[in-house]
Amino acid sequence: MEVGSISPAPRTVEEIFKDYSGRRAAIVRALTADVDSFYAQCDPEKENLCLYGHPNESWEVNLPAEEVPPELPEPALGINFARDGMNRKDWLSLVAVHSDSWLLSVAFYLGARLNRNERHALRMQLQSIDFRKRLFSMINDLPTVFEVVTDRRQSREKAGMDSGSKSKLSTKRSSDGQIKNNSKTVDEGYGEDDDEHSETLCGTCGGNYNADEFWIGCDICERWFHGKCVKITPAKAENIKQYKCPSCSSKKGRQ
């Protein structure tokens, strides 16, 4: 299979999005359903290897393209070298983040030519930035590869997670101090959990709880916050044994 292959001449936002979706599906499969095969192919003893996703939803681990500059932007180089030096799950998450970056770079590389092609096809006098906005909007409706990989990891490990975690995706402390397990994957949805948290407000912005957003609770003041408001991601939250919100952290510093 040709490294970094392009689907036949994408000419519209929809065609580029189809190309993106195929490549994304391939990488998601490599890092989830086919993860054992992917892991085995990333031998640290081999040369610099890259993970490629193709528009037909197939993936491969291969050397980078020989031509300079390459036909398409290149994915992260040498992913195999870090394989044995990191925890397997952390390594897969790192590959996922770099893969997201590569997918976006390919999509917008193809989108650079949209202005001429799609304007001619639709006979519309629009600027290329409008097409890029449409393309990004369509891409943004899909979860990133990193989100898919880490959600899969969280669902597998929820039975062994620290009972002190205050993530909305994992646990909630009731008024009597007991821990309620609310861990659910994105596909399972939140159901009754939506009603339970419907009156919860973010301690920073005052926004209402939304099951589609990541939240984290302070172990000191027991207020809840949007992860984005306190700059905490699901990946960071996994490594926090006791979370202190910015307000509680600053209070301790003044004492």
UniProtKB/TrEMBL annotation:
Query: Where in or outside the cell?
Result: Nucleus
GO terms (molecular function) for this protein are: histone binding; transcription cis-regulatory region binding; transcription coregulator activity; zinc ion binding
Q: Is DNA damage a UniProt keyword of this protein?
A: no
Record flagged with keyword Metal-binding: yes
Gene Ontology terms, cellular component aspect?
Answer: nucleus
Q: What does the entry give for GO biological process?
A: chromatin organization; regulation of DNA-templated transcription
Record remark on domains: The PHD-type zinc finger mediates the binding to H3K4me3.
Family, according to the entry, reads as follows: Belongs to the Alfin family.
- Relate the protein's function as given in its record: Histone-binding component that specifically recognizes H3 tails trimethylated on 'Lys-4' (H3K4me3), which mark transcription start sites of virtually all active genes.
Complex formation = Interacts with H3K4me3 and to a lesser extent with H3K4me2.
Q: What is this protein called?
A: PHD finger protein ALFIN-LIKE
Naturally occurring in which organism (per UniProt):
Elaeis guineensis var. tenera
Traced from the root, the source organism's taxonomic lineage reads:
Eukaryota, Viridiplantae, Streptophyta, Embryophyta, Tracheophyta
The gene that this protein is the product of is LOC105044605
